[in-house]
Amino acid sequence: MKTRATELLGIEHPIVQGGMMWVGRAELAAAVSEAGGLGIITALTQPTPEDLVAEVERARSLTDKPLGVNLTILPSINPPPYADYVKAIVESGVKIIETAGANPEPFMDELKGAGLKIVHKCTSVRHALKAQRIGVDMVSIDGFECAGHPGEDDIPGLVLIPATADKLEIPFIASGGFADGRGLAAALALGAEGVNMGSRFMCTTESPIADEVKKAIVDATERDTELIFRPLRNTARVASNEVSREVVQILDDGGEFEDVRELVAGARGRTVYEKGDTEAGIWSVGMVQGLINDIPSAGEVVTRTVREAEQIIERLTTLSA
C-alpha cells in the first residue's frame, strides 16, 4: 500500500504509531517499525536527552527499519530543555521527527540541516497551512476524537480530513479515531495519505503500560472519556474516572488551574500506567477505545489494519463494476 506518506517516510504501510507520553518506548516503536509502519519514541518520556539517545539505540537493536521521535513543545512552569532534546534527536541518527504543541520553526534550520523529515501535528486547517508555510514535510491532522489535545475548534475527522485535503499541498496523515482497516480505508478516501494511531497501539502486548490499563481500554466504550481544561481553553481528552470528573466539575464551577494542579499532576498519570490503578490520576485515551476489543501484538495491529483496508477498498471497487 504505497502513498506519499510511505514514500516520504521510507515505510511499507501508511500507519504511524502515536508519540505518547510514557508509552512511546523502544519495544513498542521497534515492533511497529518492524511490521512496516513507523514507530515513534517519545522524547520527553526519557528523563534526559542522553537517555533519549540511549533509547533510540535500544530500539535500533530491535529493528533496522525507519524510526521516528516525537517532541511535544508545550508551555510549562519548568519547561524541559527543548533545544537539548532537539540536539539529541539529531545526534541519535533518526531521520524523522514528529513535532507537536508549539510552532517548531525555531528548530527548523537545525532539523532540516541534519536531513530530518519533519511531521507536525495540527488540529486545524489553518495550523496545517502555517506548518506548510514554514517548511515541514508532512502534517498529522488531529480530529476532535483524539486523545490528548484536540484543540479548541471541535472539528471531527469526517470534516477535518477532507477540509485539509482541499487546502494542503504537502502530504498529511489523519489522526484521532483510528483503530482498524475501516479507519485507514476511510482516511485514504477522505484525502489523507495514511493514519496515526495512538490508543490502538497503547493496547498491544509491547505497550509498556500495565495490563490493567489495557483491559480498561478494552472494556470501555466511546463514551468513556472526559474533556478537561475546557474553560481554560487548553482542552485535553482523557479517560473518564473519578479524578477527571472531579477536574471537570471544579473548573465548570469557576475554579482555576491552581485548584486542580495536584489532581492533574503528571506523576499521578505515570502511576496509572506503571501500577495499573486506573483511578490514580489523569491518563490519556481517545474515543476510539470503543472500537478496541483485544490486546494483540503491535505487528498484528499493523498487518491486520492493512489487510482489512485492502479488503474494503477491493470491495468498494466492485460497487461501480
UniProtKB/TrEMBL annotation:
Record key words, sorted: Dioxygenase, Flavoprotein, FMN, Oxidoreductase
One MF annotation (Gene Ontology) recorded for this entry: nitronate monooxygenase activity
InterPro entries reported in the protein's UniProt record: Aldolase_TIM, NMO
Keyword Flavoprotein: yes
Top-level taxonomic group: Bacteria
Protein name: 2-nitropropane dioxygenase
Protein source organism: Marihabitans asiaticum
